[in-house]
Amino acid sequence: MRSPVQRSRANARVTACAFxxxxxxxxxxPAAAAELxxxxxxxxxxxxxxxxxxxxATSGPTIGRGWFAGVAIPTEGFAACxxxxxxxxxxxxSGPLAALQSVNAPVGGGSFVGEARARADYxxxxxxxxxxxxxxxxxxxxxxxxxxxxxQDTLTLTNPGVATGTAGSVDFAFLIDGMLKSLPNAPxxxxxxxxxxxxxxxxxxxxxxxxxxxxxxxVVNDGTPYLRGGGTGLPGGFVLAPGSFQGSAEVxxxxxxxxxxxxxxxxxxxxxxxVSPCCYGSSLTSEFMSSALLxxxxxxxxxxxxxxxxxxxxSGTAYGPGGLLPVPEPASVVLWAGGLLALAARxxxxxxxxxxxxxxx
Length: 361
Prior knowledge:
The protein is of the alpha+beta class. The protein has one domain. It is 15% helix and 50% strand. Strands 5, 6, 7, 9, 13, 14, 15, 16, 18, 19 and 20 form an eleven-stranded antiparallel sheet that branches. Strands 1, 4, 8, 10, 11, 12, 17 and 21 form an eight-stranded antiparallel sheet that branches. The chain has a two-stranded antiparallel ribbon with strand order 2-3. β22 and β23 form a beta hairpin. The two termini are 54 Å apart. The relative contact order is 0.17.
């Protein structure tokens, strides 16, 4: 049986353990969703099915939750409507993720050949879509490719001078780099689109939150490209020409997404593109696989800009005011670790030499 002193010491140890467990729990990242998605879709052919005159007559986008993106296909699906192509849609908590889908389908008097790609990682997204249509097009002809890349993370912003719970706002800067080009066949019409959308809040994964598109680009036939969005920095380094634009621009959203300092909030960003070439030798190409890259987080507290802050993420990704922080190269890490080991060995040798000299004396 333990004495009162032993019981007191045991209780003290339990109390100390409970304190440190609580402290560790408070310091741990919030248990919230962090997810990546890479989607590539391609569809081609003439829709036909069994089941009456309305068979394969209703279609819709294959990415929902407020995005309304991806290729549009009949509600019955590819095979039931004799369509070629398919969808590769991947989600995971860690990345990078990559998706690829192609199509080569017969149409009236020719074929539709296309490909879509997507790459997703935290703070870094890329998409591409292309297609060439050599046949005729009717209301039952499908000829579309689409790429969609998304990351969702939970962030907590802190600054020693800003009290937890202080109302604030954030915006995000992304470097957009790529090209969108249309080679039409007049007078027939075709269109290609690219966009970057952002959502911030708790529960952003549902359709109740409409995305804020800080960047959107559209080409129709060989007309003047239309670049716009809820952000600053456009047209930036993009070069516009009839039916195309290419280059890059750093775009900062102007949404003033509401947050509270020291409290977790969810952010979701998606880069999406779609092309639908018309007919008779026309083509469309969207190539944005090298973007978008998160290059900045603009934060405010009570209307005052805060330029120095820390970011805790559920994914473990390193973010800061400059956006996605660089990860040290493996060689640099090895050299740094090797230097520390060499320094430690030198110190041990010096201490051993000192002990030996002292014993001889």
